[in-house]
Amino acid sequence: MTNSLRSLAFRCRFVVLAFAFLATTLLSSEAHAQSRTIVIDAGHGGFDRGGVPRQRVGEKNLTLDVARRLRRVLQESGYRVIMTRNSDVFVPLGERVAIANSYRNATFVSVHFNSSSRVGANGIETYYYGRDSASLAANIHRNVVAGSPSENRGIRRRGFFVLRRTKIPAVLVECGFLTNPTEASYALRPSYRQKLAEEIGRGLRGFRAPMAKPLASGSMASVDVLPQPFNGPDFVRSTSRAKHSARHSKSSRKKGSSSKKKKSSSSKKKSSSSTKKKSTED
Ligand SMILES: [Zn+2]
To answer: Residue 7 Cα, ligand 1 centroid: separation in angstroms?
Structure first.
């Protein structure tokens, strides 16, 4: 081997080693940045069926099913999973938040299906409140939208009780409208609920799906997007047109305050019951 060939071989080896080092550093820092504990919150439960009155396809059982599927998906990837409920029981919003906040360095994801008095309302939307939850919301939203035939209603910042009161990154996904016959038929398919779970799981793992679908025409115009750094193509700001969301937000607040009252009275009666008891971990 000539001298020049030897030095070329050395340089090549150096470049390969440098790349390997960089890749391991980046991968480990990304893995470190993601929490390994996920608190999954299946929306509603017990007497709280979710949705609007006289809704044909109930919400509470579908959210629980997606939550359980998501738990399996995450556990298979080595995550520790906490469920705010794992059966058809009513868990007050305050208790869901307390469960989430009792796990430091965890991530909270609340699973819901949407509803509207307007049968035509459709699409997937994802909510966050804390600014540090925006990128997580985007990751989850883009994966779910990419894996679903439903429309993209965008990512919205909204003060739902479970998002406002959680001290860890928190996102709420509305996986389509059960009041829309087409989206209800998707939601009733176990294979579709499995797909939803897998896509939410990909988002939680930090997989960045490209935003393939533009915002649905019913969503707000692009002039409404939030200021930097939350002005991705699918971030939208609330307006008076977001009727369902406003209703949901109000009911969340009401439930939140009533649950607080209930909680304080029930804690007097049953001082031995702790919030952690309600959570399920396995
Ligand atoms: Zn809901």
So the answer is: 64
d(CA 223, CA 228): 13
CA 161–ligand 1 middle distance (angstroms) = 12
Q: Which residues contact 164 (CB under 8 A, 6 or more apart)?
A: 129
Mean pLDDT by 10 residues, the chain (282 residues): 56 55 45 75 96 92 98 97 98 97 96 94 95 94 96 93 96 97 98 98 89 74 39 60 41 40 38 39 42
Give the CATH number of the domain where residue 130 resides.
3.40.630.40
> Quick one: pLDDT at residue 3?
56
Q: Please, are residues 137 and 68 in contact by the beta-carbon 8 Å criterion?
A: no
Evaluate whether residue 166 is within a structural domain.
yes
Smallest Cα–Cα separation from 125: which of 96, 147, 154?
154
pLDDT for residue 19: 53
Report CA(200)–ligand 1 centroid distance (Å).
16
What separation in Å is there between the alpha carbon of 49 and the centre of ligand 1?
A: 8
Q: Which domain holds residue 129?
A: 34-281
Domain count for the chain: 1
Residue 44 backbone zone (phi > 0: left; psi -120 to 50: alpha; other: beta): left
